[in-house]
């Protein structure tokens, strides 16, 4: 992974950049890294605010030969890889807010946006975009109580290239084990240890259901296991869901 390593001073969104290049035949493993992202995208059509040069904005293009249903596992894998990379670089532990975010001191540090394109019934490509707040010290009013950065948490932040390399190094190793195992079973234990909501009451909002229960961890497919008050164990697929602590 990381070949080619595409770097630009500025682009709209690294995910959109990666998708444009994917359409022109960019290979599996291509990385798109930018200093200044002007139109960063978040999940659910939201924007990802990226004050100039203050964060990591990177997208990885993958062309896995696997069923599209398994694509969400790669988001889960990137979340774990990012948490490991943050610990590698800063020595501080970030927790994972399944399926997409990393938090420190209960505030969001990192977001992941995975987009997939299909060719017939197969995956044409997957773009995994990751944003990590590095040097931001002042967030916009509406997110200031919910967001944090490595600078705020650790006193200093690594530069973009170092953070990017650390994330990719971890993801590359993990991706190999994931492909070999065929699922996330090799990572379950570590993931559960880093899971912010584990053992706590959560409310999961999926398209058509709302589920309240105790978060138990993930299963080998990367789905969240939630035990309902009635004692039943339900699995939540890492699609379009939002998880709240209660
Ligand atoms: C979220 O938390 O809603 C996901 C945020 C994802 C942000 C990253 S920054 C790099 C990549 N390019 C984008 O436009 N978005 C992702």
UniProtKB/TrEMBL annotation:
Residue ranges occupied by any BPL/LPL catalytic domain in the UniProt entry: 1-179
Domain of life: Bacteria
Top-rank EC class of the record's enzyme: ligase
Keywords carried by this UniProt record: ATP-binding, Biotin, Ligase, Nucleotide-binding
Entry-linked InterPro entries: aa-tRNA-synth_II/BPL/LPL, Biotin_CoA_COase_ligase, BPL_C, BPL_LPL_catalytic, Transcriptional_repressor_C
GO cellular component: cytoplasm
Coiled coil: none
MF term (GO), any: ATP binding
GO biological process annotation, one example: protein lipoylation
PANTHER family attached to this UniProt entry: BIOTIN PROTEIN LIGASE, BIOTIN--PROTEIN LIGASE
The protein's name in its UniProt record: biotin--[biotin carboxyl-carrier protein] ligase
Lineage: Bacteria, Bacillati, Bacillota, Clostridia, Lachnospirales
């Amino acid at each position: 992974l990381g070949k080619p390593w595409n770097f630009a001073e500025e682009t709209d969104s690294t995910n959109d950049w990666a998708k444009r290049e994917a359409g022109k035949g960019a290979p599996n493993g291509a990385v798109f890294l930018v200093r200044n992202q002007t139109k960063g995208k978040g999940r659910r059509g939201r924007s990802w605010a990226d004050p100039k040069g203050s964060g990591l904005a990177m997208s990885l293009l993958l062309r896995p030969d696997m069923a599209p249903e398994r694509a969400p596992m790669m988001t889960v894998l990137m979340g774990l890889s990012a948490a490991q990379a943050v610990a590698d670089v800063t020595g501080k532990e970030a927790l994972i807010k399944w399926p997409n975010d990393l938090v420190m001191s209960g505030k969001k540090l990192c977001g992941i946006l995975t987009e997939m394109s299909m060719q017939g019934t197969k995956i044409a490509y997957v773009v995994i975009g990751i944003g990590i707040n590095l040097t931001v010290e002042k967030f916009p009013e509406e997110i200031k109580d919910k967001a944090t950065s490595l600078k705020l948490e650790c006193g200093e932040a690594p530069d973009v290239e170092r953070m990017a390399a650390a994330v990719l190094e971890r993801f590359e190793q993990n991706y190999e084990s994931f492909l070999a195992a065929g699922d996330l079973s090799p990572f379950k234990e570590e993931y559960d240890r880093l899971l912010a909501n584990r053992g706590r009451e959560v409310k999961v909002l999926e398209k058509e259901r709302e589920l309240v229960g105790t978060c138990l961890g993930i299963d080998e497919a990367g789905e969240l296991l939630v035990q309902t008050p009635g004692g039943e164990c339900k699995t939540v697929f890492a699609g379009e869901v939002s998880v709240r602590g209660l």
